[in-house]
Design goal:
Chain A is of the alpha+beta class and about 350 residues long. Chain A has eight helices and 22 strands. Chain A folds into two domains: about 240 residues, P-loop containing nucleotide triphosphate hydrolases (Rossmann fold); about 110 residues, Nucleic acid-binding proteins (OB fold (Dihydrolipoamide Acetyltransferase, E2P)), CATH 2.40.50. Chain A has a six-stranded mixed β-sheet, with helices on both faces. A six-stranded antiparallel β-sheet of chain A has the order 14-13-12-15-21-22. Chain A has a five-stranded antiparallel β-sheet with strand order 2-1-4-5-6, covered by helices on one side. In chain A, helix 2 crosses helix 3, helix 2 runs parallel beside helix 4 and helix 3 packs across helix 4. Chain A is globular. Chain B is globular, with a radius of gyration of 27 Å. In chain B, about 70% of the residues lie in helices and about 0% in strands. Classes of the chains: A alpha+beta (about 350), B mainly alpha (about 600).
Chain lengths: ~350, ~600
């Protein structure tokens, strides 16, 4: 079941719009890779290209050792021959077939013996915890149940690669949490290489081995969730990932390892940077104190928003606004003076012009 | 980097790759289908249109008697000059055109009033029995359009065109005025009572799709009812009105039956009847000039209207969604309006059929007493006193053959049209956004603007002789099937597109990824999921083909006689009672067919029209 997927310089145009711009990715066998980005970033297009549902205008795709698409060689294997499984956002269960027929469709095409098919139906329904639903029509089930059947349908014919296009986005928040756990478990057991498309960063962070953050048809960063979160490659990624959002402060490099924000300065590794920069500070990396500390900067608590497990504090100093996340219910009152200090290790420094990461 | 690898490849490799990519493109199912559809439409629509034009600008064999020096096939403007200038032009072109326009516009206005108000009553008010009215309102569409014209004559015939007078005179003792018996007034009334169904269907679908919140919002802001109607409802219904206009207008411009029955006896000719006259007289090129004029006229009017409303392609309907909560209260008007609607439906459905039936049982025409009733016209043995010794209609073996022809034609046409609809829908929807898909979509629209009688003329032009590999099909049954299918392409593509849109692309893609090839996808996913679209297309086509006259009147021969054209034959021979029997048979077959086909899953006339 271990299949590598290699994508080289893949380009796809819709009319004049460049949906994919020379995308290259190597997806290691057995990994769970998420394509993450806002709508229109090309993530679904990339998935559909891998599935063979779109024909790219350039580049190559290998699934395992098989070259399934090559523009330069004029090769494009039909999706039916790519040995993939695809789960759609709207489930795409065939409404005129009962659950068992939905599941056996692919098996019938493979001319599998009947007894074996029945076994597969049972197995796959068990895997998604939907035993006993063989005789239902799709419309007789809830959205969550339909999504499970869609998964079972894919599992039953044991494709080498799982492709999932925002499979959870039509479910309500609670169900989505449950299904995340199930999906991750399913991947863990099957070990199939998985490409998962989502616009939900939490989903990406919680489930993936690797995340490819995309914007305007270009992969911005391809890294582990940890790296993507803590060392975003550019301002777009930094801004897109994390809730509450990252604090991005405009400053100027004012000397060796010193950055001037006007009202205050901080010390951090500035590497080769000079001139205008942006510093990214995650809300949870800011240390809050109710009394002056050496090196801490005085801010005003503009708003305090406790939410049980943690609290969000919006702090202001003149025009500068910082969002801070602290554990538990905060005792800080609105308009109280607070002192903020920053751990140089947690700060990321970006070039203002190119928006790329310079130092961290 | 892709560019660098490309330049490294030798030219032969790059050419090979380009060729492979082309083959990949060419073998995509939607492309294959689209190309097949293009070829079909080229053969069925474009070439015939070309031949039609060609005939009018070349010398014909029939011209030799007047111009012995003319070279047959050589270019000439003679036919155009003759048909468009001088007295000839006035008699043969301008006056009929004026008449056609009068009738078309009159019919559109009257249909709009009838169809629009019925739609409003059914969708937007608390009138009792709305459901029943809704179902009955489409029935006139099932009957042939000229049924009403025949029934009209039973009632209002006077001595202007000879023959026995109608019931009006028999009962009241005075002859009805000429304007009531023949000419534009009765033609418009009869056409409107048939074609109002378009407006009814389009407007009710549009009204149903309007969220009543939009109107309520206006009401909350203090707008008056009239203002709401004018500023909110009307603009929202406008596209539907336009669709209704285009459909009705182009149908009436090319309609033959009504004007032939109620106009021709008093020399009130429209383009359609004039065209047939010219053909019968052997002036084919002249007839074709009329056909082109008719096509141009229909096209210009339709495009002018589209521009006026500013919505291109707005003949696409708005699908009816959900149920409208706030019904207008009719209050004390309820009973009066309901009575009016009941009387109207009786007048349109029961009374005409009743009149026709009664007429067929009369032994001597014009004598409406009970003692004159007889079955002679139906099953009577040959008797020189009646019908010039012709036996009753049911004893005539030709009638059975004709009925069978009609049924066969309707079934074949319905099948091929519905199948074509699904395939067209697939190639258009699946290839969305590509130029090929747009081209197919646009070509499929052409027959829409060609009036029925002109379409028939086009087919004579094309199939009268053998052209290259295309056989001469004139006089064959196949030609009737081809022309009927071709004329239905716009409807079938529309209902096919809407059926495919409902299926959505994911369902097919899911099968594709699961390993199904094209054939498996069509057989197991697409066909089963478009059954109701298929059945609806089948139903609509069956009904319209069954009673279609304008389209086939020029193409039928003795062996391919159809019930519809047989009616006209009887009418023109002055045997109205026999014509009426044939109409009743036709209606009976159509209604039975409608009932049988309607039983199949999800079939409905509305869906057939792409709603």
């Amino acid at each position: 079941m271990e299949t590598t997927i290699r994508i080289n310089n893949l380009t796809k145009k819709f009319g004049e719009v460049l949906a994919l711009d020379h995308v290259s990715l190597v997806i290691e066998p057995g990994t769970f890779v998420t394509l993450l980005g806002p709508s229109g970033c090309g993530k679904t297009t990339l998935l559909r290209c891998v599935a063979g549902l779109e024909d790219p205008n350039g580049g190559e795709i290998y699934i395992g050792n098989k070259l399934v698409f090559s523009y330069d060689k004029g090769i494009s294997l039909q999706s039916s021959k790519r040995e993939l499984g695809l789960v759609f956002q709207n489930y795409a269960l065939w409404p005129h077939m009962k659950v068992d027929k939905n599941i056996t469709f692919a098996l019938e095409i493979q001319k599998m013996p009947k007894a074996e098919m029945e076994k597969r139906v049972k197995e796959s329904l068990k895997e998604v915890q939907m035993e006993g639903y063989e005789d239902r029509y799709p419309r007789e089930m809830s959205g969550g149940q339909q999504q499970r059947i869609a998964l079972a349908r894919m599992l039953a014919y044991r494709p080498k690669v799982f492709l999932m296009d925002e499979p959870l986005s039509n479910l309500d928040a609670r169900l989505r949490m449950d299904m995340r756990a199930e999906l991750k478990r399913l991947h863990h057991i099957s070990g199939a290489t998985t490409i998962y498309v989502t616009h939900d960063q939490v989903e990406a962070l919680t489930m993936s081995t690797y995340i490819a953050v995309m914007k305007e048809g270009v992969v911005q960063q391809f890294d582990t969730p940890d790296k993507v979160y803590h060392f975003p490659a550019n301002l777009f990624v930094a801004d897109f990932i994390g809730n509450p959002k990252v604090n991005l402060l405009d400053g100027v490099v004012s000397g060796k390892n010193a950055i001037d924000f006007g009202k205050f300065k901080i010390t951090m590794n500035t590497s080769t940077a000079s001139g205008k920069v942006v510093v990214g500070i995650r809300p949870e990396d800011i240390i809050v104190s109710e009394r002056p500390e050496p090196g801490a900067v005085e801010f005003n608590a503009y708003s305090v928003l406790p939410s049980g497990a943690d609290s969000t504090i919006v702090a202001r100093l003149g025009e500068t606004e910082l969002t801070i996340r602290v554990m538990g219910i905060s005792k800080i009152k609105m308009d109280q003076k607070i002192w903020l200090s920053f751990d140089p290790q947690t700060l990321n420094l970006y070039d203002k012009e190119t928006s790329n990461l310079i130092a961290s | 980097m892709a560019i660098s690898t490309m330049t490294q490849q030798p030219l032969s490799m790059r050419l090979l790759a380009a060729w492979r990519r082309f083959i990949l493109w060419l073998t995509r199912p939607q492309v294959v289908l689209a190309l097949i559809m293009l070829v079909l439409m080229f053969y069925m629509v474009i070439i015939p249109l070309y031949k039609l034009v060609e005939t009018t600008v070349t010398w014909q064999l029939s011209d030799l008697s007047r111009f012995p020096d003319a070279e047959v096939g050589g270019l000439t403007a003679f036919h155009w000059v003759r048909m468009l200038t001088g007295i000839f032009g006035r008699i043969y072109t301008y006056t009929p055109l004026q008449h056609s326009m009068t009738i078309a516009i009159g019919t559109v206005v009257l249909s709009l009033l009838i169809g629009g108000s019925l739609a409003w009553l059914v969708v937007r008010t608390d009138m009792p029995g709305r459901k029943l009215v809704n179902q009955l309102a489409v029935l006139p569409y099932i009957m042939p359009s000229w049924t009403l014209a025949q029934a009209w004559l039973v009632l209002f015939k006077n001595r202007l065109a000879g023959g026995a007078p109608g019931m009006y005179e028999a009962v009241l003792g005075v002859s009805p005025p000429d304007w009531l018996s023949y000419g534009p007034v009765p033609i418009i009334i009869c056409c409107a009572l048939h074609y109002y169904t378009f407006f009814f269907l389009f407007v009710s679908a549009a009204l149903m799709s309007i969220d009543s919140n939009l109107e309520e919002a206006g009401e909350l802001m203090g707008a008056s009812r009239w203002r709401i109607l004018r500023k909110i409802t009307l603009p929202l219904v406008l596209p539907a009105l336009l669709s209704g206009f285009i459909m009705t207008f182009s149908k009436v411009m090319g309609t033959f039956g009504g004007p032939n029955i109620l106009g021709s006896p008093v020399k009130y000719y429209v383009v359609a009847t004039m065209l047939r006259g010219s053909l019968a007289a052997g002036d084919r090129a002249d007839a074709f000039v009329l056909a082109i004029v008719l096509i141009m006229f229909a096209m210009v009017t339709i495009s002018l209207n589209q521009r006026l409303v500013g919505t291109r392609r707005s003949y696409e309907t708005i699908g009816g969604r959900g149920f409208v909560a706030n019904a207008s209260k009719l209050r004390n008007m309820k009973k009066i309006i309901l009575t009016g609607v009941i009387i109207f439906q009786l007048l349109v459905l029961i009374v005409p059929l009743g009149l026709l039936s009664y007429d067929t049982f009369l032994l001597r025409t014009g004598d409406y007493s009970f003692s004159n009733l007889s079955l002679q016209n139906w099953i009577g043995q040959p008797n020189p006193l009646y019908n010039d010794g012709e036996p009753g209609v049911l004893l005539n073996p030709r009638v059975y053959k004709t009925a069978w022809n009609s049924i066969k034609l309707a079934l074949y046409t319905a099948f091929f049209t519905a199948l074509l609809g699904v395939l067209l829908g697939y190639s258009i929807v699946k290839g969305r956004g590509t130029r090929l898909s747009k081209l197919v979509d646009q070509l499929a629209y052409i027959p829409y603007v060609i009036p029925g009688i002109a379409f028939g003329a086009v087919y004579i032009a094309m199939f009268a002789r053998k052209i290259g590999p295309l056989p001469s099909l004139y006089g064959t049954f196949a030609l009737l099937v081809i022309v009927s299918v071709a004329k239905h392409i716009p409807y079938s593509s529309r209902s096919g597109v809407s059926a495919m849109m409902q299926v959505g692309r994911e369902l097919e893609e899911a099968a594709q990824v699961a390993g199904a090839n094209v054939w498996q996808r069509f057989r197991r996913i697409i066909f089963p999921l478009t059954t109701s679209g298929f059945v609806s297309g089948f139903l609509l086509t069956f009904i319209t083909t069954m009673r279609e006259l304008s389209l086939i009147i020029l193409l039928v021969t003795r062996d391919t006689q159809l019930l519809a054209s047989l009616t006209m034959k009887y009418v023109e021979a002055g045997r109205d009672q026999m014509a009426n029997i044939v109409i009743l048979i036709l209606v009976a077959i159509t209604v039975t067919g409608n009932a049988i086909i309607g039983r199949f899953r999800g079939g409905s006339l509305k869906k057939g029209l792409g709603m």
